[in-house]
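Handout, tutorial session.
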Amino acid sequence: MTPFGTSSRGRRRDDAGMTLVEVLIAVGILAGVLVSVASLFVLGGQRVKSGREMTEATTIASDILESLNNAGFDQLTTLFPSCVTATGCTVRTDVDSYASAQWQATISGSLYKGYGEITLTPIGGTVTPPTFTSGEGLRLRVRILWTEGTNIRSITVESLRF
């Protein structure tokens, strides 16, 4: 007998190692964990892309709103020839000639199937509903829309001009 209770001919049963069933169970558990972790990487990548597109859309909308705010008050109502109503209008950057020339290339280059909607609405004044000529101010709203996967996303920024 050796000092640790084993015979010199063989090992104890506890020292025999792992069976094939134990190895298969361990490999199965490892595979399940790895698939879960891999799906988290895919989901994280989608969220990063979505956040980048949202930031891009917000930047574009802010740039459009800033350029509209830099235009004179009277000039805003004449910039868009497709505005035919005196009580407010909405133009799309993929349809209106002025808006398309100014911003559609930037939107299309950054966002898949993207376009913008620019809404001008007169506010205040003595006439109800307010018109562009009688209003005391103007509400500017810029909305950017784009396709992300199977969803249509949008971001809206607004400003008031007096």
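The second record follows below. Compare its token runs with those of the first.
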Amino acid sequence: MRRRDFIAALGGVAAGWPLPARGQQGGRPPLVLVWFGGSADDPAIQSRRNVFRDALRELGWIDGRNIRLEHRSTIGADQNRAVAAELDALKPDAIVTGTAPVLAAAFRQTKTTPIVFMQVTDPVSDGFVASLARPGGNVTGFTIFEHSFAGKWLEMLKEVVPTMTRVAVMQNPDHPAWNAYVRAIREIASGMGVEVTPTPANSSTEAEAAMAAFGQPPNGGVILLPSALVTTNRSLIAAATLRHRLPSIYVVRDYPVSSGLMSYGVDGIEQFRQAASYVNRILKGAKPADLPVQAATKFEMVINLKTAKALGISVPATMLGRADEVIE
């Protein structure tokens, strides 16, 4: 090949590469820290990591070639603080976070590194962004729903179990949205004749003990609020709800797949693809302040009919008809 032909061919290949990344130091590929709430060996988290990586690849970013992905998974405030302390040494060009406690830890540590979040309920009230349309700082991303959405979980659980008169609302008490969720559930519970019991739990052992105590009187149910605790320990918690005869609802389909009764929430996989698109734009020079926070538009209901039968529950045909997936 003649020299001029070689140079022309090289130019054509380069045109398909992503533009130079923001913050590259010494010519190194940009570093993106992918930080989720949960356990690193959780198959659900591994699957979502793969979705994010593949979405970046479709946009021209190949891990180990022109981008570097560092992964962290944490549960609880202590682990969140430990990873946040790494940020100064890592110097990531962007951070991708999943869950509000992880976002809070990253946000406390840096007000300059771009952060793209997922699985956060109300970033405005929590002080992460100035508004959804104009985030105004170093943070943007994708919300899952508003706090008032929690009322839907109570409505759906009551529809499945009309005799339910008591509901435990369980979550890690360190979660920023804990109080707001409980308020939203209480606002509609009185009109439904349901007593609400906030039930904090920091571990699967605490969750088991709380359900054992709550399940002794009849007509109880459990709303499991979004948290890494429930996501990571979903099989143990689902088994505990069965042992103590407590119908339960969670936000993601992984829970009924693990023998929980039902779930209703956002299609989480799609948010990981969307996060890759925002990271792509940021690495090409866009500012998080100029990228609006996007609200979820796709929701799914999943019901485990086998679990319902084990609990002696007859799920109404109307609800089964509305379900996106019925596990039998």
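Points raised in discussion: The chain has two domains: 3-144+268-297, 147-266+300-327.
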